Amino acid sequence: MKLWQRLFGTMRDAPPSQRDEELQCDICGNKTWRQQGYFLTTAEVTTSSYYWVFKREVLFAMPVPEDAKVGMFTEDIESSVSDRTPWLVCERCSVLFVFDRKIARDCAIRKTAPPNSGPADLDAVRSAAQKAMLMFK
Ligand SMILES: [Zn+2]
User: How far is the CA of 96 from the centre of ligand 1 (A)?
Assistant: First the structure.
């Protein structure tokens, strides 16, 4: 335990945390405690191809016509990219993303936006989504 604390620190230096709250994970929609999740930036979420693979699977399982799905997928890309608020991500979904777990957990505990929050680069997001589409061919 001491080695663990030396390597990764403890949360003792964080200010008294605000009361925890049960919220929905922004990825899977399941309930999660904020302080047991992670706050990610829009870029961290939307430039992950795995995120778009997940979104694609959810969307394509929906009982709507194929051409409507393509439109919905495009709409999803455009609405996600401009999100300025942190994304609450549960432990299970966190494996889809590359991010600093300590910073993201700390932000979730403190309820503050992670560094570099704000809209993501649309081209980078489109490229990640495109890769996700290719993974299914
Ligand atoms: Zn989740």
Answer: 10
